[in-house]
Amino acid sequence: MSDSSLRLVWIYPDLLSTYGDQGNALVVERRARQRGLEVSRVDIRSDQPVPTSGDIYLIGGGEDRPQRLAAERLRRDGGLNRAVSNGAIVFSVCAGYQILGHEFVNDLGEREAGLGLLDVVSTRGEAERCVGDVLADIDSRLGLPPLTGFENHQGVTHLGPSAQPFARVRFGNGNGTGDGTEGAWNDTVFGTYMHGPVLARNPQIADLMLKLALDVNALPPVDDRWYEALRQERIAAATQPA
Amino acid sequence: MTMAGNSEPLSPRAKLAVTAGRAAAAASRAVGRGSGSVIGGKVALRLDPDLLARLAGHLDVVLVSATNGKTTTTRLIAEALRASGPVVSNALGANMPAGITSALAGGSDARFGVIEVDEKYLAGVARDVTPKAIALLNLSRDQLDRAAETRMLAEKWREGLSGNKATVIANCDDPLIAWAASSSPNVVWVAAGQEWKDDAWSCPSCGGVLQRPGDDWLCSDCGFRRPMPTWALSGDYVLDPHGSAWPIHLQLPGRANKANAATSAAVAAHFGVPPQVALERMYQVQAVAGRYDVVSFEGRDLRLLLAKNPAGWLETFSLIDPPPTPVILSVNARGADGTDTSWLWDVDYTRLAGHPIFVIGDRRLDLAVRLEVAGLDFRVCETVDEAVGAAPPGRIEVIANYTAFQDLRRRVGN
């Protein structure tokens, strides 16, 4: 961490906050405070420079045009790439995940350059939109329990050699490539198609980011009763599609 | 069926369609499947696809659309226009073409048709029924897993309204509404306010970041900005184009309903009903399809409030009684609600601090996590009965989303 308080940066809520994405920021913030950490959360609008000194960056989902605008402004700004080279953690969802890759297909049907922070390329799927509850097993090296989330996307994301699949789906679509992969990660940069918001359904992922930011192996426990109850309910729902 | 007024009677085909539709509706009612208005309309439209246009041809039609407040506003406008003549309206909220057809088929003596239209169907219905006026209140995120994207909806409205001869009565405080309506040559702008701002931070025209000084909004990139209103909601008053202030007295609670009344007054004035007369008539509107109704259940008073999306919850929080009034929250995620619950995280539940909170509904666990992260005390209950039994004394505010609200009405007998 850069100083005594944890710096949480939420990227572009004006463009990429369509699916309750603020929830991911709220969960990280809450769980850090419950561990007695000081947290400063900064919400960066797309006409403001992205600070390079943050510890954890969150970037959410959005509609097609806002996604293009966000990619243009993040490329021009350059702050997020500098933050990552400083060792910052980035957690991205859906449209935000696609922006972190090399390229995606924008609202005009054209290939739009991303930030190249993940070795992935996204296209638009031919099949029906992927909508529904998902259950997946997270990369075992991350030591996390199963992933539960809600997907709602048309995008298909192909992983290059230096990106690891974040998870393998048991139920649902994930990256939409048909190979069962969901999301991607590399070092401190993570991407997923899961909404929910995903950190409300998987608080252990929020804790993983806190541990990476603090460079510790464990955190004091917090009361996870409601998170756990919700997880069980949604995992059961994913295995019994309507 | 006899048609009153000045126009040609319905063709034999249209008459047959209306009769067949009524028979289907009666059959649907008889087997206990609700009012039957949608099935009736579907049958009638299949027999005569132009029926909607034909039925509307005899009426001065007003269309009402929005994400929130369209059922209530339809009721307010209908009440106001009754000062001037009989009104037919889809007062029960069946707002797609079949439901609208069915409602109009029941109003052969009417002069006015006041029609609530689902957002997705507005452009089509506006083309079919040749309305005299279209009231547009607000647009915000709703049912994300299946509804069109909010901005795309505004774009469709804009295209649909560009060739339409109707006078559009539109909320200039909602940038998406301003964008949708400004393609029309005849707009009456109403400053009706909009608490929820999170769907309109980027300029609907060019994508620039909107500046929002005070109540104003503008895009410094392309110059698109808040149009100058001729009507406005100002506290408890409607300001008309002559600068007169008319007091709003409603039985319906909350700022959002005052905004609905302001828009309704502007619509009524367009048809020659003066604001004073219109507003006095609006006072008569009580509960709308059970919404805002106070019911007695298990010896307690419950006020039933419908909130379907973040903007609706925000407006609802501003009208409930202050703490320590107990609050029951109920959330489902069935088809009609949208199956994605992530919108719960767009709602600022910290505004409920100090209220005893009880959580029910199919998705009470999503809500429990949401409230836990907001740092609130709450209790999760299995049923509304349990929640009511556990609530401390006083009238209980019950806030529910769409199907949760229907469940609730069924249970508490309203």
From TrEMBL, chain A:
Pathway: Cell wall biogenesis; peptidoglycan biosynthesis. Pfam families: GATase_3. Gene3D superfamilies: 3.40.50.880. The active site is at residues 94, 195. Its EC number is 6.3.5.13, 3.5.1.2. PROSITE patterns: GATASE_COBBQ (PS51274). Forms a heterodimer with MurT. This is Lipid II isoglutaminyl synthase (glutamine-hydrolyzing) subunit GatD. It comes from Streptomyces lycii. The lineage of its organism: Bacteria, Bacillati, Actinomycetota, Actinomycetes, Kitasatosporales.
